[in-house]
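Fold it.
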Amino acid sequence: MGFYQIQPLFEPGELLISPGVLDSALDYNRFLRRHLSGDWGDVCEYDRMYNLRAMEADEAILSQYCVTLSGGESAILCIMTEQRRIHTVVLFINETIIPHESA
């Protein structure tokens, strides 16, 4: 059995990782590769079809993955690439993110 490299289907733009994901020690890069290659995880069929159209139209693309954290608890990891591929955000669904205000 050989190894192969998965090619991304779209560019992620700037990568933004939430503090909760960084503190969790979760290997989010594995899920990011899945997101960029078109494996959108645990989303419904409607969202899969939307993501396919969104890739061509430069619209937002959303993935969700049910994950088990190191303490054994479950969480939902969300990865969203914004329209025009400016940013890709990785966060847990229950996190509240406060935007950073620039001076």
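The chain has one domain: 14-92.
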